[in-house]
Design the sequence.
């Protein structure tokens, strides 16, 4: 089984340790794992901003880089969804590329979904000390059905999850939404942070780094310097 890890831009630029944690989890799951060195962006920011030409170019680049693998695993529901569900539309005017996009999309999985439903990972390599609350990112939840998978993995790691009110509500990030509608985004993020902190959990955990950076930024601006904000891959590989 040849598995490719698509790292994502935010992880590469902002929190590389999430990529290394995802790689550790995939290695623990068995199989041959590779991280294609030429990978860059999936093109989602360009597509969402109306830059069709760049979105097409990046989609073709990614397809060419990853279509030789049995599976492509992405530690981000947002990016995984873009590759799986948007590429066929982006490349709709080019039947050959569209067919390649559809074929690749069938083999693309969000990280926790892959670990639970494909390789059925029973034991995770880390042990996290402390209780957490989980934020369900919008795209992963609503487009990919990512809900039970991360909680199942946290349970296998012996982590107690304290459910917050509004766990399925948006954090206010939404990619360019947080830039275009800053005041609305900040209000949504404040409500998310308040709900999370009310649980008494030591950490807020999620599967999309964009959401987590947005939540952490708001927490710190609210004066909270102690609550951790972690990607689930970090929790599942923690050595504490």
Sequence:
């Amino acid at each position: 089984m040849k598995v490719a890890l698509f790292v994502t831009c935010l992880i590469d630029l902002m929190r590389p340790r999430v990529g290394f944690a995802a790689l550790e989890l995939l290695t623990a799951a068995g199989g041959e794992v590779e991280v294609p060195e030429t990978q860059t962006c999936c093109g989602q920011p360009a597509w969402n901003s109306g830059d069709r030409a760049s979105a097409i170019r990046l989609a073709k680049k990614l397809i060419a880089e990853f279509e030789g693998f049995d599976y492509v695993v992405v530690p981000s529901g947002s990016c995984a969804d873009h590759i799986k569900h948007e590429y066929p539309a982006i490349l709709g005017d080019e039947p050959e590329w569209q067919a390649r996009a559809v074929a690749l999309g069938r083999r693309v999985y969000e990280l926790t979904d892959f670990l639970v439903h494909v390789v059925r990972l029973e034991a995770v390599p880390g042990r996290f000390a402390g209780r957490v609350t989980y934020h369900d990112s919008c795209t992963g939840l609503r487009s990919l059905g990512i809900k039970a998978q991360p909680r199942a993995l946290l349970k296998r790691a012996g982590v107690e999850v304290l459910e917050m009110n509004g766990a399925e509500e948006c954090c206010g990030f939404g990619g360019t939404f947080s830039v275009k509608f800053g005041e609305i985004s900040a209000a949504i993020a404040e409500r998310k942070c308040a709900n999370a902190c009310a649980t008494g959990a030591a950490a807020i955990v999620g599967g999309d780094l964009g959401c987590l950076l947005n939540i952490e930024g708001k927490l710190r601006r609210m004066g909270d310097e102690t609550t951790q904000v972690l990607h689930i891959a970090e929790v599942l590989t923690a050595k504490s």
Observations:
- The chain has a mean pLDDT of 96.
- The two ends are 31 Å apart (CA to CA).
